[in-house]
Amino acid sequence: MKGASDRAALLQTIERLQSELGQRRCVEDELRQSLERVELSGQAILDNLEDHKRMDETLRLSEARGHALFEHAPDPLFVIEAERTITEVNRAAIEGYGYSREEFLTMHVEDISALDLRSKVPDRIAGAVQRRMQFEWRHRRKDGTEFDVEIRNTPLSLGDKPIILSSARDITENKRADAMRKKLEDQIRLAQKLESLGSLAGGIAH
Questions:
Q1: Are 156 and 165 in contact (CB under 8 A)?
Q2: What is the pLDDT of residues 32-63, one digit of tens each?
Q3: Which residues contact 96 (CB under 8 A, 6 or more apart)?
Q4: In what order do the strands lie in the sheet with 146-158?
Q5: Calpha distance 97→112 (Å, rounded)
């Protein structure tokens, strides 16, 4: 009887150990799966961070290129707010108008417009906030000299704030050349007219 009881106890012990071993294996499997999920999530986070780093670098390079293009553009460029304040200028504007960057950033569009055009600036800016505009204008340098410009206004937005990118190309020489060409054409037409009248008068005299 005692031998049978010992065997029964041994079998129970073996069954208990097998059950515990099975439970341990289940726990280990769950832990391994959890670890794999954590590793996958960690890799996904790392990949996401790397993507963000690449995006940030791309954005930084794009902003740097945009700033370089703005700063070194051959024509004066102005960033203007809807309230007509000047918030940024490029090197060509500083060199062409005689104001420092710091001075420009305290000014309004009226301050660089010809005296007789200043009252018309608000309407021009209001229109430029809504649509692209191109027109001839006259600007005024720091020393008081006025000159003809071709304005190109492009509406943009900075967040939810409307702004205008405005370029001002000096067309003084173009207009002077056009005036000289027109004067020459007028002189040629007058000479041809006088020649025709002279021929007509000569014919009548004969």
A1: yes
A2: 776 666 555 555 555 665 665 666 666 676 67
A3: 76, 141, 170
A4: 86-89, 77-81, 161-170, 146-158, 133-140
A5: 8
